[in-house]
Amino acid sequence: MKLVSTEPSQVLASRIADALNASVVDVKFSCFPDGELYLCANGLDEDMIIVGSVVDSDSLVQLVLLIDACEGSNNRLVIPYMGYARQDKRFRAGEPVSARAVSRLLSRGIDRCITVNIHDKKVLSYFDIPASDVSLARDIGTYVKDMDLDDPLILAPDEGTAAFGRQVAAAGTWDCDHLEKTRISGDEVRMAPRALSAAGRPVVIVDDIISTGATIATAAAMLRGQGASDVFAACVHGVLTGGAFSRLKAAGIKDVVCSDTIERGCSRYSAAGRISETLLQ
Ligand code: R5P
After folding, report:
1. Which atom of ligand 1 is least distant from the CA of 119?
2. What is the position in ligand 1's atom list of the atom closest to the CA of 210?
3. Mean pLDDT lowest for which of 32-41, 90-99, 181-190?
4. Whose CA is nearest to atom 10 of ligand 1?
5. 122 secondary structure, DSSP code
């Protein structure tokens, strides 16, 4: 069994390979003088496991090129972070359903696909091949357990993420809630846990994606005001755009951690275990 990956997913791919006792293929990545991407994989097998997060448009092109380089008929694709998935419907006339466009593009030459905490599971139906999603909620729960916090409150940023929060909290049978926004005035919003109090205890805000960090930064400042002893943020996909990590630290968050679906300095838990389990099924 052999794995091949795009540049942004090299470390995760090698962790998956280790878990599967497989080897990784050496790929040369470069650019033509006009900026077009080029790659050449050395030692591909007939059927490959291809690993590539779509973190930007170049990584999408790299993944398309890599899939084309793999000529087998039984290739499996792992998309640890699937960018473009959030445009999962046509919000306004004239817009594409980007998630569908990308899913179709990445289905060609692939037998089966695995994603990780995809923005919405309905995106899986956009692939032209069988696609399944794995969740890192339990892995985040294990990480929180290792933090050894005293009576932490696990907090999801909104109702839509509440189920994810409950799955994280199940790892330690901790209290769990989600944030509720209350409009105080035209330009003032209060954010607080819907039912429980944050006073005097550490709070871990958990989300699938931290992008700009705006929601969590605002929530963290308010939670500190409500007496939380410490606020932490943990997510699956650390998109961390526009200085998000610094914004979150400046908002008083003690630590911000993510998985290696996007390889970051603050990647503290790996998606390799869940992905390799699923590949073996
Ligand atoms: C939304 O659907 C996601 O779960 C995240 O809450 C969202 O992407 C976070 O965005 P930001 O970090 O920009 O507030």
Report:
1. 2
2. 12
3. 181-190
4. 211
5. G
**Could you give the domains of the chain?**
2-135+271-279 (3.40.50.2020), 137-260 (3.40.50.2020)
Q: How far apart are CA 41 and CA 26, in angstroms?
A: 6
- The DSSP 8-state label assigned to residue 123 in this structure reads G
pTM value surpassing 0.85 = yes
Residues 6+ apart with CB under 8 A from 256: 210, 213, 232, 233, 234, 238, 245, 248, 249, 266
Catalytic status, residue 254: no
- The ligand 1 atom at the shortest distance from the C-alpha of residue 213 is 12
The response to whether residue 161 sits with its C-beta less than 6 Å from ligand 1 reads: yes
- For ligand 1, atom 2, the nearest C-alpha belongs to 119
> Is 165's C-beta closer than 6 angstroms to any atom of ligand 1?
no
pLDDT tens-digit map of 141-159: 999 999 999 999 999 999 9
**Which pLDDT value is given to residue 189?**
75
Q: pLDDT band for position 72 (50/70/90)? A: confident
Instruction: State the pLDDT at residue 196.
Output: 87
